[in-house]
Design brief:
Metallo-beta-lactamase, Chain A, 6 helices, 6-stranded mixed beta sheet, 17% helix, 4-stranded antiparallel beta sheet, single chain
């Protein structure tokens, strides 16, 4: 099956670029977009990632940032003529706070997550920044990813989700992060989540500035770097230069 890929813009926030690109661009501020990706083939509608907490949740819990030009995920889908109940599958690149909230919108969908990622999200290293990233602090409330607990399909390694969509286990940014490889009429596209937050990471082979394991990152990068030249990073505003890919 061939799919089209539509970035669903949910807002942006300015961060130091070194947070995305390891040991580069210290002191340089740049906009980071927050998106989910809509995959479509005929009547089939699939999401890759489900975005950050809703604006009203972020206001109540200051540990999460409020986004500029915020758009709710269901409103972003509506702009594409898609209702939440049409989403049959949600593939989560990983379970950090900005990629896996809003699952309550899709109670009918299967949610695909790597087994290693679930195991770590339940008990991240105490005292580390991972506790906040996974929404495991008391002030975070219930972690957003837990909304999809009963729907989760635990993936173990590289798996074909369905014809034309494969996930590839790529630890490094997080223990169980996964990239999604999608067949389109333009060739294969890689949706890497935060494993590749910016085009520069992919082009130059430079890790995310938020790194979990350097050895894992480089091993994973060498697995995916030659799969396709078409990569849509998680937080690069350049992905919004086109409305639809594929």
């Amino acid at each position: 099956m061939m799919y089209t890929i539509t970035p669903l813009m949910m807002g942006w926030k300015e961060y130091e670029l070194s947070e995305a690109i390891y040991r580069r661009h210290f002191g340089v501020l740049q906009k980071n977009c927050f998106v989910a990706y809509l995959l479509r083939s005929g009547s089939e509608c699939i999401l890759v990632d489900s975005g950050p907490p809703r604006h009203e949740e972020a206001i109540k819990r200051p540990i999460f940032p409020t986004l500029n030009d915020y758009v709710r995920l269901d409103d972003a889908l509506a702009k594409e003529g898609v209702k939440p109940e049409q989403i049959s599958k949600v593939i989560l690149s990983h379970l950090h706070w900005d990629h896996c909230w809003n699952l309550d919108l899709f109670p009918q969908a299967k949610v695909y997550v790597q087994k290693k990622e679930i195991n770590y999200a339940v008990a991240p290293v105490e005292g580390s920044q991972d506790v906040r990233m996974y929404g495991a602090l008391p002030e975070c409330g219930t972690p957003g990813w837990f909304e999809g607990w009963s729907q989760m399909v635990r993936v173990d390694g590289d798996v074909e989700i369905m014809p034309g969509i494969n996930v590839i286990l790529t630890p490094g940014h997080s223990p169980g992060s996964q990239c999604v490889l999608v067949d389109t009429k333009e060739g294969k596209y890689l949706l890497p989540g935060d494993f590749i937050p910016k085009f520069e990471n992919f082009r130059d082979g430079v890790p995310n500035g938020i790194i979990g394991n350097m050895y894992d990152w480089f091993a994973s990068y060498h697995r995916i770097k030659n799969l396709t030249p078409n990569c849509l990073p998680a937080h690069d505003m350049g992905i919004l230069d086109r409305k639809v890919y594929g």
